[in-house]
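Quick start: read one record
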Amino acid sequence: MSSKRKPSLLASLFICFGIIAIMLVGIVLYHIPIQVLLLLAIIFTGAFSYQYGYSTVEMVDGMRSSFSRAMVAMVIFLLIGSIIGAWIHSGTVPALIYYGLNLINPKYFLPLGLIICSITSISIGTSWGTAGTVGLALMGIGAGLGFPAPVVAGMVISGAFFGDKMSPLSDTCNLASAAAESNIYRHIVGMAYTTIPAYIICFVLYTVLGFSYATHSNVNMEEVAHIQSVLAGHFNLSPLVLLPTGLLVVLMILKVHPIPAMMCAAFAGTLIDVLCQQSNIGSALTAIYDGYTQPTGFKLVDAILIRGGIQSMMGTYSLAFLALCLGGVLEKVGYVAVLIEKAIERITADKYMVPLVIGTTFLSNIAMGTNYMSIILNGAAYRKAFDDAGLERRLLSRLLEEGGTQTAALVPWSTAGAFMAGTLGVATFSYIPYSFLNLVNPVLSIVLACFGIFVFRTSSRSPSANAPGHADTI
């Protein structure tokens, strides 16, 4: 077996920029499916990596390790599709849209939707679950009120990722805390310093945007009434059909593992389907796989409802799988680790660690296609540097979330970006300009750090000063 060699900085830059070039040229110029581009990127990276002594078997082992760490997320992919299919077929999502159109004033739709998504995501701890349930209903309400789909999708994503970042039930929140070896509750408090101001800015922006759309575009109340009549004509919209949403929230609050909680929510939708919609058990269970497939005859409603099911997630699933495989090879050979090590060597002031961590974590999302691996890799790479600089570990964990979690949905070929685009039915590049929290939070953190604000330091510059369990200062 040939000895392993560490890739050089130039080689690491060549690989990372090569992958980005493959993606951008393929998507923008030739409109090639992202899955094909990821395959090309894997071939490009793998072929280049042979010179460093890595065999095909070893690179495949890196892929396997990458997929293993993200397996729960991959299962959740399929379960979200199951919930969407079951909840639409059972009338749960149609009821949320129907009652939402009655209750929500167009002027306040965007800020109110932001709050709804934020509360839901904090309660259940997952941006994916929020987007696939409440977010999907808000997309329907927004369409009925005349709001452009990219605007509504951006609002949903902002609210969903606020909760995903701040909830102690969130996988990324726990992952960032673990990667930085920081106490999770101090991690959440540390994030609040930049996340809350960013959230307030976004709330104001969505309020202004909502008033602008409500003022300059007349809501066609006849069309709203027609949407409601179509929904009422095809579904029994008894309040009982909302029970699956309550069940999912309760299970998540009780800290039931997401996989059994989502399974229960999906099959609760099946039970409601049989009891309230008078569906036979066969069609109710088939909706878990095929989603809702029955046209209503009204294109706007059909665009909202004909979706969901495990089958609908397979394109996104394959994209996520290939992104994880690519990330596994990049991690195995060490390209991203080399870039991080070289970047740390050039840091001359503590405050520059903030844009550096955010930047490399974001670039890791772009290169590896998954924020899980970005958070793990960058957390491990920066721990010692933060200790040596006398910076708190909760600062590192906060930056991992700002550069990793918040930017995940902004990369079209990442697991999060692919999921949000597939679930909400809006292309990633279309919703990015309206995903205010995901854009504002990292930028605000960098700007504040330039003035030395919220750059948490320990009382000692000793490497052990902020070791796990050390009582760091507020």
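The radius of gyration is 23 Å.
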